[in-house]
Amino acid sequence: MSSHGVMEEMLIYLRRIAEALERIEARLPSVSSPSLAEVSRAIDELSTVQVAEVEPEQAEGPQAATASNRLIQWLEDRNIKVRRYRVLPPQDEPLDWFARFLGERFDHLRPFYDEWKRSISRQWEWFRIYMKDFPPNQISDIAQFAYRLHQYALLESFNYAKSSRTLSAKVVMLPDIINFVTGGWLERYITRLAKSVIERIGIDANNIAIMSNIQIVLPNQSDAEIDILIGNEETQIWLECKTSEEYQPSVEGWKKISRYLRIPKERSGIVLLTPPESPQVSEWLESQIGMTVLRLNEVSTFLEHAFQNIE
């Protein structure tokens, strides 16, 4: 049979399958739209890459050498094995709006965030915020944030009592929401911020990989994780994120990774939501790990300066 005849048979076969599926779908009861949690979980699975070990002759050709491939190769050149990582999807994900809103207005939203995170961490069902002394624009931001969280099922319910200026909310205990609240939002915010900085200063985005949650095995065979790594085989930017006030337990791990990555402090930083109050403590911390201690509102400027070395 000619190739043309084979194609015609395939088209007829596919058309019959499509018609059968339409008949089946017509008999099925309607289902509700997926929740934000379900959508974000599916997207996370799609954008998470598990690195499989392949023989050299099975490796893809040079045309597949994307920026993320080259960044992984840079790690492997340092005898760091990459097991799993997440690439930044080209389009915004459902949770990105919440990460951006929280990151851009964190000073206003911090009282809400702190209570939300505390409730998640301690498995409390409800939390409450008293906003009697808050300025109107802060109350507005918190109420808007809570309303959208409830609208997208990240909060089971919430109520704002205007007379007492009290907001109460019931939390949702799903794994992806817990991850988002306890630190995932900060990584989302910073990776999207990095993308916007790249666009603003005119760097070719195809030449820069933005990767997060990189699970690695160090040369000493110990497991570790890099929060965010940006760049290519020539220049790299490394960021660690900490939403907890207790950053001290992470210092030894940062030092260990820093010794192998050897990225200068001008291109490596720790983003602390609660940085040390004393400049002397920040300076000591920087000297210990060879990284810059950053407040949330300093990340954009830090990235702009760091990106000047990546063209």
Helix-residue proportion? 40-55%
- The chain-level structural class is alpha+beta
Oligomer: single chain
Residue runs with pLDDT of under 50 for 5 or more positions? 2-14, 20-33, 52-64
Number of helices: 10
Main beta sheet = 7 strands, mixed
Shape: globular
N-to-C CA distance:
54 Å
As a percent range, the share of strand residues is 15-25%
Number of strands: 10
Spatial order of the strands forming the largest sheet = 1-2-6-7-8-9-10
Mean pLDDT over the full residue set? 84
Computed CA radius of gyration, to the nearest angstrom: 23 Å
Order of helices and strands: HHEHEHHEHEEHEEEHEHEH
Structure description:
The chain has 311 residues and is of the alpha+beta class. The chain has helices at residues 3-27, 36-47, 67-76, 96-104, 106-122, 136-151, 175-201, 251-261, 279-289, 299-307, and strands at 48-50, 81-87, 126-130, 155-161, 166-171, 209-217, 223-231, 236-242, 268-272, 292-294. The strands form two sheets. The protein has a seven-stranded mixed sheet. It has a three-stranded antiparallel sheet with strand order 3-5-4. The radius of gyration is 23 Å and the shape is globular. The protein starts with a helix and ends with a helix. Residues 2-14, 20-33 and 52-64 have low confidence and may be disordered.
Short description:
The protein is an alpha+beta fold and about 300 residues long. It has helices at about 5-25, 35-45, 65-75, 95-105, 105-120, 135-150, 175-200, 250-260, 280-290, 300-305, and strands at about 50, 80-85, 125-130, 155-160, 165-170, 210-215, 225-230, 235-240, 270, 290-295.
